[in-house]
């Protein structure tokens, strides 16, 4: 269920702000640390997040079909600074009042269809929320999102199907994990995206 656009834009900003808060304290010696994202260390995760921000911003401007925009693997001299700059770019792109009415080309998801602005923003919001947690945990810190943002993101997570795409190499979100009855909303949200809330002590990859 998609939110009202003004509410969605606000939630999107808050999710990107979570990533900024998680990324800003990262130090150079932490960049080689493993993360909850399979096969990515922290530098590689920041590269992915930076590329996604620029890709979604370009898509908002009608240029998302250029697949070169979505390529990762750059040897970044300052991954933290690059990410923080990209966060400002994507936030500004999604602040446009008519962004909901635009069509987004997102070739990573489909080369055959375009997506409504509200769909694109919802996807980027969810991606930002989860990756903020990934970054924070990789750096040995926690994440403290506001309860409303957790609830909104959880309601979206509950609607994402558990299909074969989530089991392919490089999938952003793995198959959902079981959580104990009565688990807090953040734990349930993380489990729905294949993250163990206790990571790295309980890593679904091992």
UniProtKB/TrEMBL annotation:
Stretches for region Disordered: 161-181
Name by which UniProt lists this protein: TIGR03086 family metal-binding protein
Lineage, broadest ranks: Bacteria, Bacillati, Actinomycetota, Actinomycetes, Micrococcales
Domain spans labelled Mycothiol-dependent maleylpyruvate isomerase metal-binding: 18-136
Organism superkingdom: Bacteria
One Pfam family per UniProt: MDMPI_N
Species this chain originates from: Georgenia halophila
